[in-house]
């Protein structure tokens, strides 16, 4: 298959096929297979993704994008933000409700049965992972 090019911006229209970030492929290969026997590589700490989330109950203008970070220490945080089809970007300054944030602890809940985002004992984890998301995706100020 041909190599998919890197994206030129943070968010792209759905008609653009491109990749953001870096490949994780080398994380699964032995250093010798990559010719890295004499080098030390730092394992990646986060995997980032995004996907469109349908409008809420019949409101076609209420379209959101789910921005997700998965950490190497076993957490997945997703923040849903309003998304503009005109600017092809999320509006991170728009107020969000409690249902717009999800945190799952794969160390205790591998099946994602309990959203821990509102649990005070996870507050530091939520803030840390939100900072990672915003550093990646919140490049445009509204």
What distinguishing features does this structure have?
5 strands, five-stranded antiparallel beta sheet, Arylsulfatase, C-terminal domain, alpha+beta, single chain, 142 residues, 1 helix, globular
Structural class: alpha+beta
CATH class of the domain at 44-137: Alpha Beta
**What does the largest sheet look like?**
5 strands, antiparallel
Number of strands: 5
Average pLDDT confidence is 77
Question: CATH topology of the domain at 44-137, what is it called?
Answer: Arylsulfatase, C-terminal domain
Count of runs of 4 or more consecutive helical residues: 1
Judging by the overall fold, what is the CATH architecture of the domain at 44-137? Answer: 2-Layer Sandwich
Q: Helix and strand string, N-terminal first?
A: EEEEEH
Shape: globular
Low-confidence stretches: none
Short description:
The protein has 142 residues and is an alpha+beta fold. Helix content is 11%, strand content 23%. The longest helix has 15 residues.
């Amino acid at each position: 298959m041909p190599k998919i090019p890197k994206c030129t911006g943070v968010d792209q229209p759905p008609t653009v096929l491109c990749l953001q970030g870096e490949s994780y492929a080398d994380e699964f290969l032995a250093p010798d297979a990559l010719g890295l026997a004499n080098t030390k590589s730092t394992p990646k700490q986060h995997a980032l993704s995004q996907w469109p989330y349908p409008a809420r109950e019949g409101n076609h203008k209420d379209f959101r994008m789910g921005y997700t970070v998965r950490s190497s220490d076993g957490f997945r945080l997703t923040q849903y933000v309003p998304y503009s089809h005109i600017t092809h970007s999320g509006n991170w300054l728009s107020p969000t409700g409690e249902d717009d944030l999800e945190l799952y602890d794969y160390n205790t809940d591998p099946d994602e049965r309990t959203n821990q985002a509102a649990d005070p004992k996870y507050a530091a984890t939520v803030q840390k992972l939100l900072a990672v998301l915003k550093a990646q995706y919140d490049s445009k100020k509204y």
